[in-house]
């Protein structure tokens, strides 16, 4: 019988233990997979982000048959990173689980402690932020913007930075002020384009996106969610163009902008019907 038989047979071990054991074998210098052995924290991080997005994608598409597998792919990332850390003598998977267990209990005193759980959603948010402030202080995070992860999607990070600044009063008074700033930043993008200064154009375009994130925040819109929805809508309508052209045996490259624009409008009208 193979030394790996318990790992290859579902049910031979609790599945989380089986996954951790499989990961340990894959990382084994003598028995493991060369690719897995070569990885480190930094090389695995992009896959972690990608798998998190694929979980979100499955939810967005309501692809519930794919959902367990996508969550499994994300769980693998945690197990993989914890395995690397354990090999380095830093911490192990149980330490990871303990950290999140302790954090959840600490952040929910109205459930696990003596606080009253009969609170408004607004009060819950305020209490949550106060608890997180205590955690940041324990990490010696003294700056208002400390602890906002660099690896977040840029739009999400922009909103989090703006929210942090807003807590100490550094914020536009209202939506109209943000709209005025949007006009100003748009003019600066145009000016940089006209001067054919690519570095300045990149900077000004970044400023414009940052203001757009601020506008989303003031309108209580999640910019990442809004952009994902716009991407989905664009994909759906462009596929309608492809389908319409395919009826006459053509592809988009066989068409022109005027025809495709008309087909786009037709797709929009069909969605409204």
Automatic annotation (TrEMBL):
One MF term in the entry's GO annotations: ATP diphosphatase activity
EC number(s) from the headed UniProt entry: 3.6.1.8
Start and end residues of each NTP pyrophosphohydrolase MazG-like domain: 39-112, 176-237
Superkingdom, taxonomy of origin: Bacteria
InterPro entries: MazG-like_dom, NTP-PPase_MazG-like_C, NTP-PPase_MazG-like_N, NTP_PyrPHydrolase_MazG
Leader sequence segment: none
BP GO terms, sorted: dATP catabolic process; dGTP catabolic process; dTTP catabolic process; dUTP catabolic process; response to stress; TTP catabolic process; UTP catabolic process
Record field: catalytic activity: ATP + H2O = AMP + diphosphate + H(+)
Classification via SUPFAM superfamilies: all-alpha NTP pyrophosphatases
A Pfam family hit: MazG
UniProt keyword list: Hydrolase
NCBIfam families hit by this protein: mazG, PRK09562.1
Family, similarity comment: Belongs to the nucleoside triphosphate pyrophosphohydrolase family.
Protein name (Swiss-Prot/TrEMBL): Nucleoside triphosphate pyrophosphohydrolase
Record organism: Paracoccus aminophilus JCM 7686
Phylogenetic classification of the source organism: Bacteria, Pseudomonadati, Pseudomonadota, Alphaproteobacteria, Rhodobacterales
